[in-house]
Amino acid sequence: MAKFKGAVVIDEERCKGCNICVATCPFKVLALQKKEVNNKGYHYAYMENPDACTGCTSCGTVCPDACIEVYRAKID
Amino acid sequence: MEVNDIIKPENLVYHKPALLKDCTMHYCPGCSHSTVHKIVCEVIEEMGATEYAIGVAPVGCAVFAYNYIDVDMSEAAHGRAPAVATAIKRLQPDKLVFTYQGDGDLAAIGTCETIHAANRGENITIIFINNAIYGMTGGQMAPTTLLGQKTATTPYGRRVDLNGYPLAISNLLAQLDGTCFVTRQSVHSPAAVRKAKAAIRKAFENSMARKGTSVVEIIGTCNSGWKLSPVDANNWMEEHMFEKYPIGDLKNV
Question: Cβ of B94 under 8 Å from any chain A Cβ?
Answer without folding.
Answer: no
